[in-house]
Amino acid sequence: MWGDGTPWEAIPPNLRQSMIDKIDVVDAGTPALHQDAHGLLGLTGLANYKCPALFIRGARSIPIMQDVHAALVALMPQASDYAIEGAGHMVPMTHQAECVKLMQEFYQKSGF
């Protein structure tokens, strides 16, 4: 569902180990991601967030990710959405250099 069809064996060993080491993060995020535990989607949440925000996704992620990013960008006045071509859901792990480049450009433009 979340991958791009790459067989597990074809993923470099260091990336596989990183995925294994961080798998608990997926479940730990359930209250925040699925239940809005912090009230971010309400009227006093992200709509009042005035700082620049950068959302990065893989262009090959499941289609709903584009919709999620679009909804978040619509809520946040200074948000940007970028899709990295050829990347799937695990874009920060599989396309590290591209993510770093986008973040560096974002920080420079934002004055951080």
Model description:
The chain has 112 residues and is mainly α. The protein has a single domain (10-110), classed as Rossmann fold (3-Layer(aba) Sandwich), CATH 3.40.50. 46% of the residues lie in helices and 11% in strands. It is built from six helices and two strands; from the N terminus they run αααβαβαα. The radius of gyration is 15 Å and the shape is globular. The termini are far apart. The model has no long low-confidence stretch (mean pLDDT 88).
Helix and strand topology:
Elements: H1 13-21, H2 24-28, H3 30-35, E1 53-58, H4 64-75, E2 79-84, H5 91-94, H6 96-110
Parallel strand pairs: 1-2
Main attributes of the structure:
mainly alpha; 112 residues; two-stranded parallel ribbon
Strand content: 5-15%
**Low-confidence runs (pLDDT<50, min 5 residues)?**
none
CATH 2nd-level architecture: 3-Layer(aba) Sandwich
Number of strands: 2
Number of helices: 6
Shape: globular
Helix content: 40-55%
